Fold:
Amino acid sequence: MKTIDELLADGVAGKRVFVRADLNVPLDGTTITDDGRIRAVLPTVKALADAGARVVVASHLGRPKGAPDPVFSLAPAATRLGELLGADVAFASDTVGESATSTVSGLADGQVAVLENLRFNAGETSKDDAERAAFADLLAGLADVYVGDGFGAVHRKHASVFDLPARLPHYAGHLIATEVGVLKKLTEDVQRPYVVALGGAKVSDKLAVIDQLLAKADRILIGGGMAYTFLKAKGYEIGGSLLQEDQLAAVTEYVERAERTGVELVLPVDAVVAPAFPDLKSKAPADATAVAADAMPADQMGLDIGPESRKLYASKIADAATVFWNGPMGVFEHPDFAEGTKAVAQALLDSKSFTVVGGGDSAAAVRILGFDENAFGHISTGGGASLEYLEGKTLPGLAALED
Ligand SMILES: Nc1ncnc2c1ncn2[C@@H]1O[C@H](COP(=O)(O)OP(=O)(O)O)[C@@H](O)[C@H]1O
Ligand SMILES: O=C(OP(=O)(O)O)[C@H](O)COP(=O)(O)O
Structure:
């Protein structure tokens, strides 16, 4: 894989360089609540701009449905990128249309532009190769060189991640090079006990990775939204909690396989429940109570691991040599459901292990809840991406950067 250092050594002055970033930041309206992913791509954008490139930054944000949707505009991220760079950043109000074309052709050497959300175009995420290729052709028209630096999206076979690099000279940016460098160590030479803590809301994606992780980790702790599919599979009432019905049989098999192979698969013994999903804006009290995992009322939903689970998970992390954690244990954005995530973050810091925290929301949670991000071994900008890398999968966005 060629890195940006080679590109810079060859000279990029005057060239249009397409930087596929992951600027998928958490938003409260148009306010960015954590800008970690924007800061993470700064070294690449700055190095290119300083070298006189015309830098075209592109990203997805959220999961719009292949058409423009103002809720998912990248405009706030473009503004923040400009503030962090200390320079004006142009913003194109579309991705491959008139605004993008004129914005890119108006760039002077050393200037930066951000395109509107890639996922406003159905071709970006299409499963149809031809539809993706057609969109990648349009993107390729905007640039001379491609730099892949959106680590959080390298597990997606999307046009800007997978198809576009094939059409342009391509290089890995600083962020991807750093992320892969750290995660590679966890696949090659992991110190044991190796504990993996999983949570979050992308339940379907994350349940699927357990299949491979069972062969790699010594202990897997299950929290967040995915816990309830396990509890349901045990026959428990889970009320209105998140449920991945089509994976009930798979999780039953995971539990059996873990028992057979001596992997500890640890489930919550209690949960913090409430009658409805909390208001994350007002943060009004949510009528939360802690109940045993096998006593969840049918008219409530599980929104965090409970106090006994917090102690249990901390004890399972305490003697680890390596911990990989992806996915908040609960709806940490609301104070009534943040304790599980806080307890796991604290347990990582209290252990003497090498700690890796992965995922946009997990990394944001660590910072928003007041932990010192530098106290962790590595904070990865990708959750699904780092998990799939640790599974040993070939990631489309990394394969596409190979020579
Ligand atoms: N029990 C739960 N029910 C619903 N949402 C949850 C639950 N636990 C955690 N979450 C949500 O999971 C989200 C993060 O999930 P995800 O995107 O999978 O993590 P990451 O970005 O770290 O990979 C957070 O916004 C949090 O509110
Ligand atoms: O937030 C992301 O992934 P993550 O939640 O696994 O860290 C990436 O931006 C990828 O987004 P996607 O899961 O909508 O493809």
The chain has a mean pLDDT of 97. The two ends are 6 Å apart (CA to CA). The first strand starts at residue 16 and ends at 20.
